[in-house]
Amino acid sequence: MSRIIIKGGRKLSGKVRISAAKNSVLPIIAASLLTGYECILEDIPFLEDVNVILSVLDSLGVNIFIDKNKGNLYIKAEDLKSFEPSYELVRRMRASFLVMGPILARFGIVKISMPGGCNIGSRPIDLHLKGLSQLGADINLGHGYVEARCKKLKGTKIYLDFPSVGATENIMMAAVLAEGETIIENAAEEPEIVDLANFLNKLGARIIGAGTDIIKIEGVKELKGTNHQVIPDRIEAGTYMIAAAITGGEVTVENVITEHIRSIIAKLQEAGIYVKEEQNKVKVKGSQIINAVDIKTMPYPGFPTDMQAQFMALLSIAHGVSIITETVFENRFMHVNELKRMGANIKIDGRSAIVEGVEKLTGAQVKATDLRAGAALVLAGLSAEGVTEVSDVYHIDRGYVDMVGKLKKLGAEIERI
């Protein structure tokens, strides 16, 4: 099993280009099931999660061609040989559940297992099922599976009890082929929702309001094909911004939409880190003194839960006491014990972590417990004294394109073995 070995203490410098957003490309790949015409996705990040969802589509009989030289992905779901995605694949990755809405809307039947993914807390699918049911689907649950059928989905008004990204995406994809108008209230506002809506509109869907809490969808009879370039990954961008800050280095993070990382920029500046915004890039310069700051994770445009672990690594060497409150997932502090192995002083109190900054972290053998925890431990290792060995790095492969290679180009002493 692969491990990442880091010799800490080197200031990072240079430029790093951010890849396309994992959390955007996965629903867009699922949405390609809504049409029998070819969809071309450009500049794709070939991550482990992308491989999994492509395997799901392949198992259904979808034609897929990958041009790794151009970074393009060609998908044509002319017809399906099965309406039941592979149990093993869906259990491996939660985002696989996003194929449910498109298959149901286009073919009127789908059977899918309960989803898997990172063990960061309960992420129930009840909002997905409630929304699809309100659109007219007949849903049955049993033996670890969900089966849904419909003659024709019909537009309606749907209120989400929580602005769930996945539920908003699944309902939105199903509604584009429904009869009449669908209104999603208390919808998620994440940039990835806007990107999916833009892709669907290119196919011929009629969606307005994506990026606000009310999305209106006028159903159409059929969708066409299109070309689409996915937005940059705001979480990867934030991770490399913290890499610059935690090492006291100076890094230019390229291919970013600064509006998408506004909360990350604000918290870094509050911590005393220099951040300069330029067109499609940000320059981050570390400081000798990192200020303690309080963070509360919230749905977009609040501070992203997917950046909580990485920011905790930075605050573990800040001056003073920081309080990090996790409101999105109840089990997202599994990295705390690993950071404590490196000398961090962190106490958990319910859904809050109290982080008292220490002078320095020290290298240790640690384990990536999930995707973002893995990134946080790599960041901690970059600043730590001595050698850090991160195991279970397959989690990192799910969401970061060549993290070791990118960090090495910035001057990190890091190897994968």
Automatic annotation (TrEMBL):
Keyword terms: Cell cycle, Cell division, Cell shape, Cell wall biogenesis/degradation, Cytoplasm, Peptidoglycan synthesis, Pyruvate, Transferase
Reactions it catalyzes: phosphoenolpyruvate + UDP-N-acetyl-alpha-D-glucosamine = UDP-N-acetyl-3-O-(1-carboxyvinyl)-alpha-D-glucosamine + phosphate
Primary localization: cytoplasm
EC code: 2.5.1.7
Residues in Enolpyruvate transferase domain copies: 7-407
Gene3D superfamilies per record: Enolpyruvate transferase domain
Residues the entry annotates as binding UDP-N-acetyl-alpha-D-glucosamine: R94, R123, P124, I125, D126, L127, D306, V328
Protein name: UDP-N-acetylglucosamine 1-carboxyvinyltransferase
Organism whose genome encodes this protein: Caloramator fervidus
